[in-house]
């Protein structure tokens, strides 16, 4: 998916200029720059402890930066999806009542958010009875209640199996397209978000590399950080996505000619993921 070409002419939604965040004397983020434009999907990847969540929280203004600055477009509406949700198991609360706890929770907005995330049929289900994927969709629905210009998603596929992760990233792409919002999300796995992002930022306390997902996948800094197994996983992912999908989930080769047919016969292993 490509960002709207008009996005480059609009003011940045949010911009971090050489920000540094320290925990005691230890820098968690070291002179990080980031600019996000309208309509973009940008993914921050990196290993555990690399500062991904800290960066989101700094952009949101939830933690202070010791150096540098964060600038947000005036009147910017942000929807934030945290990494996890802890609900007291003794507290009986349905999905719709959970969404109703938000200050932006009028009934029409709740219904629309549940429809957009595919969980309207679960409105009366207790939150404790939701699966991992359904819980993540509930958190995403809550982030949509503010009609955001920018969605910030911290590990949106946390606790979801691989098939569910692919479906969730596809859902995020549809929401970006239908609502016209930008998306800044954190993930561990570049191979899962390659088809769902315009730009990748590889973070490990500082920005190691940034660019289009396929360019980052070949960058020595990425390969050094994640190792040869990551490169192998990316090669498999790219091979399995030499096609596009119809609305009904069918597969159509990008080049319907004898070359593709021959390639298919030479590699009869098929897909290893589920189409929603």
How is the secondary structure organized here?
Layout: E1 14-23, E2 26-36, E3 41-45, H1 52-60, E4 67-72, E5 78-81, H2 95-100, H3 107-116, H4 132-144, E6 150-154, H5 162-179, E7 182-187, H6 190-193, E8 199-203, E9 207-211, H7 213-217, H8 220-226, H9 228-240, E10 243-245, E11 251-253, H10 258-266
Can you give keywords for this protein?
alpha/beta, 276 residues, Rossmann fold, 23% strand, 10 helices, 3 domains, 11 strands, disordered C terminus, disordered N terminus
Description:
The protein is of the alpha/beta class and 276 residues long. It folds into three domains: 1-77 and 148-227, P-loop containing nucleotide triphosphate hydrolases (Rossmann fold); 87-143, no CATH class; 242-276, no CATH class. It is built from ten helices and eleven strands. The protein has helices at residues 52-60, 95-100, 107-116, 132-144, 162-179, 190-193, 213-217, 220-226, 228-240, 258-266, and strands at residues 14-23, 26-36, 41-45, 67-72, 78-81, 150-154, 182-187, 199-203, 207-211, 243-245, 251-253. It has a six-stranded mixed β-sheet with strand order 5-6-7-3-8-9, sandwiched between helices. Helix 3 (107-116) crosses helix 4 (132-144). The longest helix is centred in the middle third of the chain and has 18 residues, at 162-179. It is globular.
Entry summary:
This protein is of the alpha/beta class. 34% of the residues lie in helices and 23% in strands.
Q: What shape does the CA trace take?
A: globular
The fraction of residues assigned to DSSP E strands is 15-25%
What's the N-to-C terminus distance? 18 Å
By DSSP, the count of extended strands is 11
Kindly state the percentage of residues in helix.
25-40%
Count of runs of 4 or more consecutive helical residues = 10
CATH superfamily of the largest domain: P-loop containing nucleotide triphosphate hydrolases
Radius of gyration from CA coordinates: 20 Å
Provide mean pLDDT, rounded. Answer: 80
- Which fold name is given in CATH as the topology of the largest domain? Rossmann fold
Largest sheet: spatial strand order: 5-6-7-3-8-9
Query: How can the largest sheet be summarized?
Result: 6 strands, mixed
